[in-house]
Structure formats: structure tokens, C-alpha cells
Amino acid sequence: QGQLVESGGGLVQPGGSLRLSCVASGRNFSGGIMVWYRQAPGKRRELIAAIDSAGTASLESSVEGRFTLSRVNAKDTVTMFLDMTNLKPDDTAVYYCHTNYLFRDYWGQGTQVTVSS
């Protein structure tokens, strides 16, 4: 049974940095695209970054230049990292990782990022 587990969220001041991690295990996720979404209070969940199995990443314009996406494919797990710098209050949200395997969606439980002074 596959699962995704996020970590690394927390409270940070504007201009600060955080690294989020998402560990995918239990299925052969190494060949799939992995995605970060976020959902701010009262707003819809939005896709902000995606990375394919070769490590080619794409980021939404509001985070491009501040966030960096990477992944490590190991034998039994895939770990995806979201390095966030120059954080802004508008980045406050719950961050979720997602992937799809054999037409089934897998989501993590989410990790809270709060940017506030």
C-alpha cells in the first residue's frame, strides 16, 4: 500500500526559508510525476510545482525564483524536496504532495507553513 508523508513545515518570519520533504513509499513511484500543492485558508488547493522522473521541474510563476524542487529516487522510496526561500505571508498554507500510480491518486497528509512576523 503506497503512502506519501510530508514534513518540514513550521512557523517562519517573512524572508525566511524552509525545506519541505515528501517521502513516497510502498509502490514503485520512481517513474511518476510528483507534485506539490498548497491550500491557503479559504482558498482552493493550487498546484505550485511538479517534477518528473528525470528531475525536470516546473514551478508556478508566484514561486518561481524563490522555490526549488528536487527529488531522489531510491530503491524503495522517492523523496521530493521543496526548498523555499524569501518566504512571504502569502505563502502561508498547508502544503500537500501528490502523485499518481496506475490511475490511483496518492496524497500526503499535509504540512502547515506559516509565514508571519
Structural overview:
There is one protein chain. By secondary structure, the protein is mainly beta. Helices cover about 0% and strands about 55% of the residues. The protein has strands at about 5, 10, 20-25, 35-40, 45-50, 55-60, 65-75, 75-85, 95-100, 105, 110-115. Strands 2, 4, 5, 6, 9, 10 and 11 form a seven-stranded mixed β-sheet that branches. The chain is globular, with a radius of gyration of 14 Å.
Label this structure with key terms:
117 residues, four-stranded antiparallel beta sheet, mainly beta, globular, 0% helix
Topology:
Layout: E1 3-7, E2 10-12, E3 18-25, E4 34-39, E5 46-51, E6 57-59, E7 67-73, E8 77-84, E9 93-101, E10 104-107, E11 111-115
Parallel strand pairs: 2-11
Antiparallel strand pairs: 1-3, 3-8, 4-5, 4-9, 5-6, 7-8, 9-10, 9-11
The major sheet is characterized as: 7 strands, mixed
Using only C-alpha atoms, the radius of gyration works out to: 14 Å
Q: Quick check: average pLDDT?
A: 96
- The ordered string of helix (H) and strand (E) elements is EEEEEEEEEEE
The tally of strands reads 11
Helix tally equals: 0
β content, as a range? over 45%
Uncertain residue ranges: none
Which class of secondary structure composition applies to the elements?
mainly beta
Q: Please bin the fraction of helical residues.
A: under 10%
- Shape category: globular
End-to-end Cα distance = 40 Å
